[in-house]
Amino acid sequence: MTTAPHAVRVTGVHKRFAPTGPAVLQGIDLTIRPGEFVCLLGASGCGKSTLLNIMAGLDRPTAGTVEVAGDGAALMFQEAALFPWLTAGQNVDLALRLRRVPRAERRERVAELLEMVHLGGAAGKRVHELSGGMRSRVALARALAQERDVLLMDEPFAALDAITRDLLHDELERVWTATGRTVVFITHNVREAVRLGQRVLLMSSRPGRIVREWDVDVTGERSISAPQVASLALEITDQLREEIRRHAV
């Protein structure tokens, strides 16, 4: 893991997709500490995914700079995006092959990663044999196989039912604690953000700017239904609604 003073630093980032087009992001300044779990919230179309893609190196800002510690970030999308002709184990193995991990080491590493996401017995299963939650776990194992210090997650559980999503919250929290990764997590679900994040950032509607942030200090049970989670989620929801109303006027 990185020993740098920051895992991600975004300075003065602006983004337009055309020289005369509207601003998508405007003046984003953000520092994320190593090992921190940060959740990004905002209305649809506010630029959250654009910002994540810039952090991942898949897009470039129109102005400003982005620094990511180590050798870049791994990105996990809303869709698991597994290769259907490969097994669960082979999907994870592909990330290791791309890193040129020797064949002799790959089988053991695949087994370790699948065990980490509680899929130790599923290495030989094809994608069509996996539930939605299992596919998300394989995608997480594949992202971890990239061995990047920073993990970027773009609404990875949005398509799942509430019970499966809640179980995966527990799994992600366990994996984050075990690996020490820095996580930047996009969600539309305010309670999910409070349930998972150490810090929650609210983005305005376009042009996207960070307008509020909350440190999440929840004692005791950290679950969707916990009273402290619900209370803070209501406060953040009020601010989110205000941002949406302001944009609609």
Order of helices and strands: EEEHEEHHHEHEHEEH
Question: According to CATH, what is the class of the largest domain?
Answer: Alpha Beta
Shape field: globular
- Largest sheet, spatial ordering of strands: 5-6-7-3-8-9
Please indicate the count of domains: 2
Put simply, the count of helices is: 7
The CATH fourth-level homologous superfamily of the largest domain = P-loop containing nucleotide triphosphate hydrolases
- The number of strands is 9
Radius of gyration: 18 Å
Task: Determine the structural class based on helices, strands and strand pairing.
Answer: alpha/beta
* CATH architecture title of the largest domain: 3-Layer(aba) Sandwich
Protein name: ABC transporter ATP-binding protein
GO molecular function, one term: ATP binding
Organism: Sanguibacter suaedae
Pfam families: ABC_tran
